[in-house]
């Protein structure tokens, strides 16, 4: 067995939006302080005294990838041909249009070609691309492209079910609305049986959650 690793940021496209490398926490706290003033609050009152620092700290944590620096692949020549699905991955991101949270439930499937990906890494990849201002469609693309890059072929499918607070607490106020995005490559596009198996298992996982 051999082990290879890849970094998410090595994956294309390099031009896609992403977090700044370093955040000036003092400056962010200062801006939150100003925002509170503009919203008619008194940032000096007891409940708000530490809020700017707390919010700055949160932004810093949110925008820092959660240990997704590398993804491990294990070469296993005997393990080809089966469908592998990793579901139940739930990550929080922020909608870039409204700066409101969205919860993304991610299911990823692939067919190993002699290389299997360490299973826990799927969750790390999802966290990595969730930790920035996002739209669900781009997130789905980034996770899929990255997995294709790591796995080294196109036989990858990713389905994402999102709950967007910008739909439930503002605008149309649809509490029950769910947005589903899916990208399928390689055999998932051309083999109806494989594609159906992925969909059946994915919707089964969602129903169970
Ligand atoms: Zn939104």
TrEMBL record:
<dbReference type="GO" id="GO:0008270">
    <property type="term" value="F:zinc ion binding"/>
</dbReference>
<comment type="subunit">
    <text>Homopolymer.</text>
</comment>
<keyword id="KW-0378">Hydrolase</keyword>
<feature type="binding site">
    <location>
        <position position="95"/>
    </location>
    <ligand>
        <name>Zn(2+)</name>
    </ligand>
</feature>
<comment type="similarity">
    <text>Belongs to the GTP cyclohydrolase I family.</text>
</comment>
<protein>
    <recommendedName>
        <fullName>GTP cyclohydrolase 1</fullName>
        <ecNumber>3.5.4.16</ecNumber>
    </recommendedName>
</protein>
<keyword id="KW-0554">One-carbon metabolism</keyword>
<dbReference type="GO" id="GO:0006730">
    <property type="term" value="P:one-carbon metabolic process"/>
</dbReference>
<comment type="pathway">
    <text>Cofactor biosynthesis; 7,8-dihydroneopterin triphosphate biosynthesis; 7,8-dihydroneopterin triphosphate from GTP: step 1/1.</text>
</comment>
<dbReference type="InterPro" id="IPR020602">
    <property type="entry name" value="GTP_CycHdrlase_I_dom"/>
</dbReference>
<dbReference type="InterPro" id="IPR043133">
    <property type="entry name" value="GTP-CH-I_C/QueF"/>
</dbReference>
<dbReference type="InterPro" id="IPR043134">
    <property type="entry name" value="GTP-CH-I_N"/>
</dbReference>
<dbReference type="GO" id="GO:0046654">
    <property type="term" value="P:tetrahydrofolate biosynthetic process"/>
</dbReference>
<dbReference type="InterPro" id="IPR001474">
    <property type="entry name" value="GTP_CycHdrlase_I"/>
</dbReference>
<dbReference type="Pfam" id="PF01227">
    <property type="entry name" value="GTP_cyclohydroI"/>
</dbReference>
<keyword id="KW-0862">Zinc</keyword>
<dbReference type="GO" id="GO:0005525">
    <property type="term" value="F:GTP binding"/>
</dbReference>
<feature type="binding site">
    <location>
        <position position="98"/>
    </location>
    <ligand>
        <name>Zn(2+)</name>
    </ligand>
</feature>
<keyword id="KW-0547">Nucleotide-binding</keyword>
<feature type="binding site">
    <location>
        <position position="166"/>
    </location>
    <ligand>
        <name>Zn(2+)</name>
    </ligand>
</feature>
<dbReference type="GO" id="GO:0003934">
    <property type="term" value="F:GTP cyclohydrolase I activity"/>
</dbReference>
<keyword id="KW-0342">GTP-binding</keyword>
<keyword id="KW-0479">Metal-binding</keyword>
<dbReference type="GO" id="GO:0005737">
    <property type="term" value="C:cytoplasm"/>
</dbReference>
<feature type="domain" description="GTP cyclohydrolase I">
    <location>
        <begin position="30"/>
        <end position="201"/>
    </location>
</feature>
<dbReference type="GO" id="GO:0006729">
    <property type="term" value="P:tetrahydrobiopterin biosynthetic process"/>
</dbReference>
